[in-house]
Amino acid sequence: MIALVTGAANPRGIGAACVRALAADGATVAFTVMPGQTAPEDLPGTAFTTDLSEAVAPGLLMDAVTERVGHPSVLVNNAAWSTRDGFEALDAATIDAH
Questions:
Q1: pLDDT tens, 46-86?
Q2: SS3 sequence, 30-58?
Q3: Do the Cβ atoms of 15 and 9 come closer than 8 Å?
Q4: Which of 51, 52, 57, 95 has its CA 20 to 30 A from that of 83?
Q5: Is there a contact between 6 and 15 (Cβ–Cβ < 8 Å)?
Q6: How many CB atoms lie within 10 A of CB 16?
Q7: What is the pTM for the complete model shown?
């Protein structure tokens, strides 16, 4: 089984926990971190740096993961972007970007 986990840069976060659990269960794991973030050193698997808010990023990521690791059969879509502003304060461009 090959798994792709997005948003795994926080070593104590949900994404990193998913990477560890999947690897412990025998999966080959690929995971993402944002540009400027460092992949946790203890995470098993292959790190890919990408900004998934860019429209072309998901397709490029899948191509890269498939080429380097194999075609994923599991996706944990954990990547997120948040703001402390209320939803009503966000404009359409910001919502569309994330």
A1: 999 999 988 899 999 999 999 999 999 999 999 876 666 67
A2: EEEECCCCCCCCCCCCEEEECCCCCCCHH
A3: yes
A4: 57
A5: yes
A6: 21
A7: 0.84
49 exposed, middle or buried (CB, 10 Å; 0-12, 13-18, 19+)? middle
Distance of CA 5 to CAs 35, 48, 63, 72, Å? 16, 10, 15, 10
Name the token pair of 81: 């972007």
Residue tagged 């072309």 (tokens): 56
How many helices, marked H, and strands, marked E, lie in the chain? Answer: 3, 4
CA separation (Å) from 47 to 7, 11, 35, 40, 72?
10, 13, 11, 9, 14
